Amino acid sequence: SRPQSEFATIIWFHPGDFVTGTPTIWNPHTLVYRHRVIVVTVAWRLNVLGFFTTMDSAAPGNYGLMDQQAAMLWVKKNIGLFGGNPDNICLMGYGAGATSIGLHMTNPISRGLFNKAIAMSGNYLSPSVARLPKDYKEHIDAIIPEHCEKTPSSKLVECLRNTKASWLVDQAANIDWSPLLDAGLGNTSFLQDLPINSFERGEYSQIPLLTGYTHMEKVLEIDGLSNVTDFSSAKLRELLEKKVAAATYLQASYLTKENSTYVYRFHIKLSTKAARGILPEWITVPHLYDLIYVWGVPYWENTGIDWDIRDRKFSDTVMSLWTTFAKSSDPSENNIYPIEWAPFNEDNPGIMIIDDTFNMNNSNNVSYKAFDFWNHYYPKVKEMAVKCCELTASGNSLRNNWP
Length: 403
Fold this sequence. Notes:
The protein is built from 14 helices and eight strands. The longest helix has 27 residues, at 368-394. Helix content is 37%, strand content 11%. It is of the alpha/beta class and 403 residues long. Helix 9 (234-255) crosses helix 13. It comes from Aromia moschata. Residues 4-251 form the Carboxylesterase type B domain. Keywords: Glycoprotein. Belongs to the type-B carboxylesterase/lipase family.
């Protein structure tokens, strides 16, 4: 018989740049037990197994995204048998998982399978989020075993299916796998166009969204990090604003037109020294470290860490905000913590600064002008520079050809 209670359901897509990762790292027990939600963690094909393509119907690609979609279909159909509400499903993803959410928002089949989303530290509006299949041709040719015939594609696929998966993954280790623009490759297409184009046309899920990024999102990518002593470097700030913050701002600008959108910047610095590991003292919250609070890691058993009570309290607050949004589409509604999180909109593009105080931003701590530069001015400058180089290379006069 069907359970009486209908809980909100969170479907989790893990990070890992579409190459690595596993849902088993993130134990949902604390989130479920303390905040009364259902959590479904999804394993999906990655790397060569998830995004290999023959550039035709034999292997069109995007299998990792299809796995996610299949999981969403299963949850929509069956979650009621586990006490969940099929009409209150929230996708939650981080990094590549958050990017995946943006792709599902533009897919006609996926759109009806979820009701809201939490997209953390992911950029799905970048032109580089998906590639053309031909961009992989050279790499794919290099990983095909010598005994496999390359044509016809059906024979190649049959041969690859009889090849050890571990061998293929090893061969493809240095390839930067990502979603594909697969229009015309098979009977059905998962991603016909870049998400940014779909968003500009208004062809995306009009759903409530909670999205944001960490204060030092890309800091661990800096070469020679051990020699850096503070966050005053213009290079560090550019990495944050260009690659993450500006994209989050743009994503929120689209979604807020039809539904409530909530944006955050994560500033809480771990108080437990053992959990910080070898991080320099000046670093606050790099990529992934906010998940410690989202998943209630300070409450996990057998971590071998004596967690500071402050980290547990912060984790309680963050889990409450996230699960309240999953339940009601508003992180402040009926929340046990008296935090007023104003929705993001054109007139008031508010961003919640998640630190000791949990307050909305002011003009002193969020660089809106930088966001506008990276989202609107920089792409035009880049386009003009490319055109300049093309005209110069062809020997044409810039004066005669410039618009």
